[in-house]
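Tutorial sheet, problem 5. The two components below are modelled jointly, 556 residues in total.
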Amino acid sequence: MDGMTSRLPTQPAALAARYGAAVPPAGPWNAMIAALLDHRSVRGYRPDPLPPGTLETLVAAAQSAATSSNLQTWSVVTVEDPAARAVMAEVAGGQKHIQECPLFMVFLADVSRNERLGEAEGKPLEGLPYLETFLVAAIDAALAAQNAVVAAESLGLSTVYIGALRNDPLKVAEVLGLPPGVMGVFGLCVGYPKPRAEGEVKPRLPQGVVLHRGRYDAGPEPTARAAYDAEMSAFSQRNEMAADSWTQRVIARIGTVRALRGRDRLAAALQAMGFPLR
Amino acid sequence: MDGMTSRLPTQPAALAARYGAAVPPAGPWNAMIAALLDHRSVRGYRPDPLPPGTLETLVAAAQSAATSSNLQTWSVVTVEDPAARAVMAEVAGGQKHIQECPLFMVFLADVSRNERLGEAEGKPLEGLPYLETFLVAAIDAALAAQNAVVAAESLGLSTVYIGALRNDPLKVAEVLGLPPGVMGVFGLCVGYPKPRAEGEVKPRLPQGVVLHRGRYDAGPEPTARAAYDAEMSAFSQRNEMAADSWTQRVIARIGTVRALRGRDRLAAALQAMGFPLR
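Model answer (structure tokens):
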């Protein structure tokens, strides 16, 4: 947080940026929470290198996240080779920031390390081939990555997740030399943002439709969605010149199988990569 | 961070606690990173209530995490009713902290909100029934939850994830009134720790086996695992009186199907809950 605190928004400003008119009640607050609310994904990076040891600090933060039963079924690979970066960018549908950021990490769901442990001890691990174990690995990779993101942002760096690596997980595995039982869950660009690349904080759905008390209740949804559609249309117009509502964006993104860009074959790809998903 | 900074460990102390003898090179550092490294899961809570608005602050932090294509395919339910808490504790194999913590949240993979959106607009979303879409929802729930954990810890609160809710996701869905397309991915206890419940920071695997550069390399693993087994035996002896190594713990946890405690049926449970996982 050193040196960051001065540019962090006040609580009313942070809540207004995140929720528009649908601001929730103001609870406890501090500089760390202000930093979390100030997150935005950045898709344009300066080539400036990171300070020495930044990667090790981000990985230490990542490893400090909780991991199910301390199994530690995740790993991370950094990609430096320009040719390998180019393949990653192509898999992700041409996202140029993958090639320009100074640090590109691929977070891995990794049950192979535990599998090797079992083999070395002469105790094959019966629990490995299950969907549950893959899910644990993917969740633990996500918890770890989010800690890395929080650490990076506290150092004045920006980030963006690259879920589009799942367009072709077999290609990613080939380039990174992944053994069976290891899958690239998502990438993460890290670096200093280009001027104006940080953009505005993106509004989210009102808390009333995401937070439920005691039992799930979709009742407030139609009204909240209409209000959020208006927020997102205004946000898009201010930032991207096309005034699509959230409703329109969701339909564009998952309305058709074609829009999944190959990710409709994820189950088959995982099978081929050593995850039977039993 | 207000009021916390004074009790945070120095960089050498934090790295030594997390890595034992296998300390990585010291990189950039600040109070936020010190707080991330100081994480420990807590399984004993005082009944003291949280300050008003704490839940809303945690949810605002959670919603500020990245979400794939802004789909926001996650939700959260709080559980206050003692009878519902008792069922959750039972599903989780008798974890009493689920009943004693002042705030218990269940993070949900939720594609139902987007499904309702498609129905309301007369555009059924073809992308919903795929494994990819469930995975996005589970990952986004994890990113959100980790932000909530970081925010909670910055307020002096402790947390523990409850993955064992997946022992019986259908029971969890019944108690929380979840519609099809919504699954409780994990629970999260939040509260003030009982005396001595915080415990020591748990050591993790050396960075050399988790962090790969350019290509995956399992070469350093046998040596690193032996060193880590010794660290974890000493840690366990200091804290839990049974000197199991990491290797022994992994084998106990996923060596047999029985050890999965019902989670070997996760794929079938998800199918029944409206996730075809195509």
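Marking note: The domain at 43-193+262-278 of chain A is CATH 3.40.109.10 (NADH Oxidase). Full credit if you identified this.
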